[in-house]
Design goal:
The complex is a heterodimer of chains A (95) and B (493). Chain A is mostly helical. Helix content of chain A is 35%, strand content 4%. Chain A has a domain of 37 residues: Histone, subunit A (Orthogonal Bundle). Chain A is built from three helices and two strands. In chain A, a hairpin with a 2-residue loop joins strand 1 and strand 2. The longest helix of chain A is centred in the first third of the chain and has 18 residues. Chain A is flat, with a radius of gyration of 23 Å. Chain B has a domain of 267 residues: Amidase signature (AS) enzymes (Alpha-Beta Complex). Helices cover 38% and strands 13% of the residues of chain B. Chain B is built from 16 helices and eleven strands. In chain B, strand 2, helix 4 and strand 3 form a beta-alpha-beta unit. Classes of the chains: A mainly alpha (95), B alpha/beta (493). Chains A and B meet through helix 1, helix 2 and helix 3 of A and helix 10, helix 11, helix 12 and helix 13 of B.
Chain lengths: 95, 493
Amino acid sequence: MHVDQGTVRRVARLARLKITDEEAKSLENEISVILDWVEQLKQVDTSTVEPMTRVVAQEMKKRVDVVNDGAIADDIVRNAPMTEDHYFVVPKVVE
Amino acid sequence: MTELTKLTLAEARKGLAAKDFTSKELTEAHIAAIEKANTAINAFVLATPEMALEQAAASDARIAKGEAGALEGLPLGIKDLFCTKGVRTTACSKILDDFTPTYESTVTQNLWNAGALMLGKLNNDEFAMGSSNETSAFGPVVSPWRRKGSNARLVPGGSSGGSSAAVAADLCLAATATDTGGSIRQPAALTGTVGIKPTYGRCSRWGIVAFASSLDQAGPIAKTVEDCAIMLGAMASHDPKDTTSVDLPVPDYVAQMKASVKGLRVGVPKEYRVEGMSAEIGQLWEEGVAWLKAAGATIREISLPHTKYALPAYYIVAPAEASSNLARYDGVRYGLRVPGKDLIDTYEQTRAAGFGKEVKRRVLIGTYVLSAGYYDAYYLKAQKVRSLIKRDFDEAFRDIDVVLTPTTPSPAFAFGEKSGDPIAMYLEDIFTVTVNMAGLPGISVPAGVSYEGTPLGLQLIGKPFDEGTLFRAAKVIEDAAGRFVPPERWWLA
């Protein structure tokens, strides 16, 4: 499966990753090689196989629907690069 | 006092109980060793000696009062993937910057509750993505092992390379580690240490930086099989904060380890005799078979027909889950931020500057295979293949109790030998990755040395939640092969 530089750029955009022209060029080859290598999975007949959704058979646990944490706004914003009054500050989104 | 660092975890525990030395003395010996060795080995990305000494003093007080916990006063190293309250946690990525958690991971909290103390945070491949520790933002870790007659720097394996090197170099009594495709077992094999990846769900993942959530498990790297059994007993628990954590009692692994292997049925999978496997690894495998047989186990050849598809399926599942998990690093709530001309540009520049090459590669592959139109062809297909890999094991375990394989296809390699070729590096995990795909427990135990004089490991794979059998069989190999320590402590010179 060959991916071209245009595809690499489109995927990088989806992944919110700025890439240089040089990176796009080397990633084109690296990603193509890896996708070629995983092509071998096509040899496996999986027409009657269910996809694995959990590795250990157990019922999904649900916690009781109660407030069991909170009032830790200081902790939540402590590591943020920019905050104001317990809000995360980001560049203006709407003009 | 450096002799205290040569003790195993079990020996140190005995010494503390007998009051042969104090936790303060034991901790000081390790701190001194780290100060002397870390420039050369680079195993610790952050040492926390003051905290360790405070904890040691508290442990000594508890020992004096007769209130010692199971790991009281024992100094450990913690992989930098575990969140530690008030202590910088980076996953060895620039994108986490100086992130300092306001909470503690469940696994490390369990260790502190048992009385253990932390010497510092250990190096690893960035976000645990690598098999040589060369992708760390803090630079690579150097193995304490060297090839005979050579000073070439060898890799300690990865991603838990700081954990394996620190234990092999006697810089801590034992270490925590994590394993997504082999990141505990491969570094253990390359450094002559013991490492176990328990069954998926045995240790809580809460507070561990996520790589691929359906594959990630925590486990220990330690000097002996018994030390691993002690460590896992303390790390494992049921945790309501991780819905995939299982509500099963944690058995006494040390007691289970001591049982006989008489009558144990050991399977040897023919598909693991892969092309390109070095002759010495094949020989080691046969020795392992002979040791288990001599101890009373019976051996039979088994077939795991989908083995060869495990690695390519892994390289779809793991990057897909990683690209999703790593979406949280956006420069808004924590970590690095590179200001851009608008919000999107801030995201894109932050992630470009914060992620390393291998992480970017995997995020892009993951994004690609999950993108519109490709989900069925890649991710869904890989998850179906995964069902077949699990089925292979389920069928084999009807007739056997444990599987014996090599841990790695070749001995330790030097810096740069595989870093230019992603697929050559990925093949390091060829024998370990099946275990994560099926959610099973696997242990690596040192079993011999290569022609070059570097250690080699054998892997045992067990049924779900049958870690006890792994310790029991691994102990037989350890007793027969002996312990492997680097011949020269050059890092203390």
